[in-house]
Design brief:
homodimer; 331 residues; 6-stranded mixed beta sheet; 33% helix
Chain lengths: 331, 331
């Protein structure tokens, strides 16, 4: 069983009577009903050695751990309100904490998102080595009743969109792993995308009442799109030539472009659907939010995700969503 | 700097304008204002090798990780509504997950608290050994506007109370560490208190409008009481002979009794204050909740916490709150 099947098997339950939960496990956020307003809530656990490298710059890390949560709130179309921070630290290092909190709170301040509480502990020793630096953030956003996006509303015939550009974070990771070479300017550009992703909060809000489904791309476009398809019970066709890629990524071999942009992960862009009649409103939302949006395909009957070349022929796409428990892919 | 000073220094900020946060860092729960209702929110990070032993029984662990959060919700006087679960697992072990979710969801069901979302990942390797099993839970409870308990409302002259009995969990830990011996019956009793604490949810709710301050005892009575004193700007005098101890603990030497009951931690009982005029209402709340409550002292002018013997003489109490970053105490 993979990660998603494990969660579904052991932890998916119907909400208890009288609970506030209208939508739970299976979306970027859970949705809590509090009368005229609803709360979107998300939680992310980030571990040194898995989600970020040992010795990662603490200020960038502070930014990123909150950014990935704000990206989930953006996917739900909610306005960030507050967050909770749980930290396990290998040591009580004041310099590290000062830089981490600087990066964290600068992003929080920009989005008016208050650090409301948390928990701090020391990472245990594994043999004689300290356990991994661990950060768990739970973030809450507010959304008017009924206005939240989920993954479940896409309809056959809807357009499929993605914000920004895809694949840069994966390219930066490949570069750091030494499997590709970039010039200085490209390297700086893609590393910024990996280390300091910009959550698409304004776009998520602007798409209220426009998008029929929405999620953030964190595990790779095709795998994440499969979640929208499964929840919405539709298929999707993605036109490869329209998938937005940065100049840096476009300078890479086409195979690397496809791997990074279709299955790279860590993009934190919004993937959403809207009716063809709403094209003008989608563009207006993108303009309002100051974020580029690309129409990359459409939703179709069925349940499969297909990628086509410029002649409409199916591309072979051996890329799946990132599964934390799967064996590593063959090189 | 200790854990509390680190948090205060780098992470305590006033709430952003328009945020929902009425009370943040420094109480068991943060309090969010949503019109006529308020939400109490708490987050706890629990790590194998620090908060629980490697190889801990997964069903008991599932119970405990939620119980410690429900205890925080109880301290605020809130009704548990839902929670979020983030897990880092050394492996995707279906048997372990089945038992863990059984313990977790049985307690959740008893309190009508819905698992609303979460995050699952694989613990990274530290050299060749898997990193620690890590559980982060964020729990949300509901409380009528203005009815939540905080640590800040105790007044000089108030009575000081604690629920249940203190020190059993610490005694169980000492037994497992081999520093004391218990007979079979006592061992079973104190281990149950350590492994399956019962959050005092009904008592917390029954004390709405009665308690002037409230928190849960998780780091040891005296250290936790010092938090009430600091937040309320009062002192406290605890009468040692009235501190409730189980029969098992009372069979231990008096020094062990004091260490366990005054500074043991992991008790998950409610520590609260109320006006002397409210004594009958406190007893009624305890009866309603089906939980014993003991009056163990009173709040006084000043800021010090003192423990007295049955003659009113000050006891030497070298016990402080558990500090995750402090050097281990001398044996």
């Amino acid at each position: 069983m993979n990660e998603f099947e494990l969660i579904a098997r052991y932890f998916t339950r119907p909400p208890a009577a009288g609970s506030l939960v209208v939508a739970g496990v299976g979306d970027d956020c859970a949705l809590l009903d509090l009368g005229e307003r609803q709360l979107a809530v998300t939680t992310d656990l980030l571990l040194e050695g898995r989600h970020f490298a040992r010795g990662a710059d603490p200020e960038a890390l502070g930014h990123k751990v909150l950014a990935v949560n704000l990206s989930d709130l953006a996917a739900a179309g909610s306005t960030p309100r507050c967050f909770f921070l749980a930290l396990a630290l290998p040591a009580a290092d004041a310099d590290w904490l000062a830089a981490f909190s600087r990066g964290l709170l600068a992003l929080a301040d920009r989005h008016g998102c208050t650090l409301a509480g948390g928990d701090t502990t020391r990472a245990p020793l594994i043999d004689t080595r300290p356990g991994p630096l661990t950060v768990c953030i739970t973030a809450l956003g507010e959304v008017p009743r009924g206005a939240a996006h989920t993954r479940a509303g896409a309809r056959s015939g809807d357009d499929l969109y993605v914000s920004g550009a895809l694949g840069d974070a994966a390219l930066a990771l490949a570069m750091r792993a030494g499997t590709c070479a970039l010039d200085f300017v490209d390297a700086a550009a893609v590393q910024a995308r990996l280390d300091r992703p910009e959550p698409r909060v304004a776009l998520g809000i602007a798409l209220r009442g426009v998008a029929t489904s929405c999620m953030d791309v964190s595990d790779g476009l095709l795998g994440d799109l499969a979640h929208i398809c499964a929840r919405s019970q539709v298929g999707a066709v993605v036109s490869w030539s329209t998938v937005p890629r940065s100049p840096a990524l476009q300078r890479q071999p086409v195979e690397a472009q496809q791997r990074c942009a279709l299955a790279g992960g860590d993009d934190y862009e919004l993937l959403f659907t809207a009716a063809p009649a709403a094209r003008r409103r989608v563009l207006a939302a993108a303009r309002e939010a100051g974020v580029a949006v690309s129409r990359i395909g459409s939703m179709v009957d069925g349940h499969a995700v297909q990628v086509t070349d410029e002649h409409g022929r199916a591309l072979a796409t051996p890329f799946a969503a990132y599964d934390h428990f799967a064996p590593p892919p063959a090189p």
